[in-house]
What we know:
The chain is of the alpha+beta class. About 25% of the residues lie in helices and about 40% in strands. The chain is built from five helices and nine strands; from the N terminus they run ββαββββαβββααα. A hairpin with a 2-residue loop joins β7 and β8. The radius of gyration is 15 Å and the shape is globular.
Amino acid sequence: MNDALETVVLVDAGDREVGTAPKLEAHRRGDLHRAFSVLIGDGAGNMLLQKRHPAKYHSGGLWTNACCGHPRQGESAMSAARRRLAEEMGIDCELCPVGTLTYRADVGGGLVEHEFVHLFSGVWSGSPRPDPREIEDYGWRAREDVRREAVERPERFTAWFRRYLDDPVCCAMV
């Protein structure tokens, strides 16, 4: 879907819906909105990363977790996570809810991510079938190598993924 046409669900600090807004407008204003992120592991200590397509409206060309996005109005975070994981990576696997967190980050270009994030993890191994309009590259990487590189070269990773790597609960997910 075209980013300019998508809407996000605005929420309060307790994740209660307070309205909707066009996605780009919400990111320009820094409105708190509902989101999800999926971390996929292979069961052997490796995590699936994607490199966002350079043409993405923000954070293009940066490495991040397997999938992230925004639920549609009336769609559960779990359903949205499964939908986008299939659309972006061509993966269909069981997901487990891990928890939630809220973060705010300037992502450049006058845009701010201010999200109440529902985190999910899953175990899957194989070769993803990424959508080339969404993803420039992908790879399986050892969790500890990713954490070390994110500290040494943070500019290579999305703001939200660096936040997840700093969280002990998130790090234990995959």
